[in-house]
Design brief:
Helix content: 10-25%
Radius of gyration: 19 Å
Oligomer: single chain
Strand content: 35-45%
Shape: elongated
Order of helices and strands: HEEHEEEEHE
Strand order of the largest sheet: 5-4-6-3-2-1-7
Largest sheet: 7 strands, mixed
């Protein structure tokens, strides 16, 4: 009887190790899919529309960890909106990225607080920091092309 229990335990440990290795190699296995939201950037003074992107919503730990690292490319009007529970100083890195991004930090009221142009890189990673409850990642150069900077606002409605 003890041999049978040891064999079962061994199989369970082996399966757990295989699952952990699969997740390490491809963390997207934890993600069933993304909701999307339309994000409009508007001039902070005039309210004039500057740009619109369709963004995948990263609203959970697994989605935030993976981010866009498993994405081969983004169209000019695509992005990812990271939704955090509260406003804080945050740091983002370009882990596993094959293309550059603009990393836009956003206050709870939608005001852009910081914009970084980030290039893909290998270790050690550069940490791009800013304060916000939301972070929008879009193709590198998007902010400059559309005139989006600190003080402008992002408008979106989350479910």
């Amino acid at each position: 009887m003890n041999r049978r229990l040891l064999a079962i335990a061994g199989v369970l440990v082996a399966l757990a190790l295989l699952f952990a290795a699969a997740l390490a190699a491809n963390p997207t296995l934890l993600i069933a899919g993304y909701d999307t939201v339309t994000v409009e950037a508007v001039d902070g003074e005039t309210g004039e529309s500057l740009a619109v992107v369709e963004a995948r919503v990263a609203d959970g730990l697994a989605k935030q960890y993976v981010g866009l690292s498993e994405t081969d490319e983004l169209a000019a009007d695509e992005g990812m909106l990271f939704v955090h529970d509260e406003t804080a100083e945050r740091g983002y890195v370009m882990r596993g990225m094959s293309f550059g991004l603009d990393i836009v930090f956003v206050a709870p009221d939608g005001t852009v607080t910081e914009v970084h142009e980030a290039a893909p890189e290998s270790r050690p990673y550069t940490r791009y920091s800013g304060t916000g409850r939301y972070v929008l990642e879009v193709p590198r150069g998007w902010s400059e092309r559309n005139g989006v900077g600190p003080g402008d606002r992002l408008r979106f409605e989350l479910d």
